[in-house]
Amino acid sequence: MSDTATDRLASVQAELRRAESDGNRENGSVTLIAVSKTFEANDIRPVLGAGQRVFGENRVQEAMGKWPGLREEFEGVELHLIGPLQSNKAKEAVQTFDVIHTVDRQKIAKALKAEMDKQGRDLPCFVQVNTGEEPQKAGISPKETDAFVTFCQNDIRLNIVGLMCIPPVEEAPGPHFALLEEIAKRNSLKQLSMGMSSDYEIAVGFGATHVRVGSAIFGARDYP
Length: 224
Known about the structure:
The protein has nine helices and eight strands. The protein has helices at 5-22, 41-49, 60-73, 90-96, 106-119, 142-155, 174-186, 200-205, 215-218; strands at residues 31-35, 54-57, 78-81, 99-103, 125-128, 160-164, 191-193, 210-213. An eight-stranded parallel beta sheet has the order 7-6-5-4-3-2-1-8. The longest helix has 18 residues, at 5-22. The two termini are 25 Å apart.
């Protein structure tokens, strides 16, 4: 692997194009979300300088600390919230992000909708599905997803555009991606946020429209 974040970005972009081709997907049909969580503005600038504009963050507070300044420097940034959201952070999330990937319960859905109405924003949202039904992980269970999507779309008019999942680390991701694709089709949802640094090429083969790649671009994270 190359030494700099920009080299690694180019490598990931090339692999993504190859995966699209192998899966008979249209060139450029998969959105690369560069996951910049835990990295400082100085780490992110070279990737922005190389033309990447779509980024993912896990925490609202962290994003609020670094992205306003970066947005002033670089036009056209699109920021995705890919980490769990607490309802008391809904106001800041709607102010800060352009897309929300982690809607997984009615309380969050209602809080987001109320804030969007208040702020005059209509953010695209993904429902996070806990495909492995892991008790420690966020996301709604697969069997409850249909009813939840209906609630979000019909009852409160939240703009649900797709589904998101994070497969269990110790399991093959393919069956989880296939399950998410199946649930999305059943609910006429066109977008799938799935696949990370270790498995994004597999995800493309199962119809991913958004892949969330962090360490393969920015390098290993130094968690506090």
